Amino acid sequence: MFPFIHLGPLTLGTYGLMVAVGLICAFFILRADFARRRVSADAEAIIGITGLAGLAGSRLYHLLESPAEFFADPWLQLFSTMGFAFFGAVIGGFLALWLLARRFRIPALLMLDVASPAAALGYGIGRIGCLLSGDGDYGIPTSLPWGMSFPNGIVPTTDRVHPTPIYEFLVAIIIFWILWKLGERGLKMRAPNGMIFAAYLVLTGIARFLVEIIRINPRSFYGLSNAQAASVVSVIAGILLFVLCRRAQTAPRRA
């Protein structure tokens, strides 16, 4: 594994590099989605602000998962480059999108719909950064032929383990493709805003719940990891949003 790339006196973290690549790819997807929906918005500003909010939310969520460690040395923990949580990024990023929707006078659910495929793709690419850095996001030991060891990772292991970042990358690509096609279909059928975001919540929630089965994260809620508990909430929220959107679509309009 290659946690860092050394270019003379410059040292670059591979995780940060892949996060940057993910944000760049998400920008192009977001801009393309705005274009096909004929929505006027500043995709560069949206990706930049949302990306920063997502990173901040991811870090804060991770700290709140282990409050004892945080309060033992809050300043070191707060500014550490290790430890990020996916659902914190979702909360922070989509909160920023809601505020940006008001700034650009775009319906909030439409903004979330447009951002969902970009978020899925960006997340998947960022997971390759976890693989390259060996930051402990890998799974439990396995005898499968594609098992990998991370002896030089940030969180090293000599055991052959499930390369869960690769699994998540592949699933993220599939989710991105599904969401993009749903958006295309929704435009033709004039589907109500919020349907793509609902699908995003359900699909990513299911994907994260399943991969956590073979992850090394500790269990807390009824035998579930924190991420699995958040995944259940994500799936329920997505289903509720879908039902509300369908009801709004089929509700008779008043004259």
Written description of the protein model:
This protein is mainly alpha-helical and 255 residues long. It contains nine helices and six strands; from the N terminus they run ββααααααββααββα. The protein has helices spanning 14-37, 43-65, 67-72, 74-78, 86-103, 108-133, 164-189, 195-211, 226-250; strands at 4-7, 10-13, 148-150, 157-161, 219-221, 224-225. Strand 5 and strand 6 form a beta hairpin. Helix 5 runs antiparallel to helix 6 (108-133). The mean pLDDT is 86.
Short structural summary:
It is built from nine helices and six strands. By secondary structure, the protein is mainly alpha-helical. The longest helix has 26 residues.
Percent helix, as a range, is: 55-70%
Identify low-pLDDT runs.
none
Number of helices: 9
Give the overall form: globular
Strand portion: 5-15%
Task: Give, in order, the helices and strands.
Answer: EEHHHHHHEEHHEEH
Q: What structural category arises from helix and sheet content? A: mainly alpha
Report the end-to-end length measured between terminal Cα atoms: 64 Å
Main sheet characteristics: 2 strands, antiparallel
Oligomer: single chain
**Strand order in the sheet with the most strands:** 1-2
When the domains are counted, the total is 1
Please compute the radius of gyration using only Cα atoms. 19 Å
Average pLDDT confidence is 86
Please count the beta strands (DSSP E, at least 2 residues each). Answer: 6
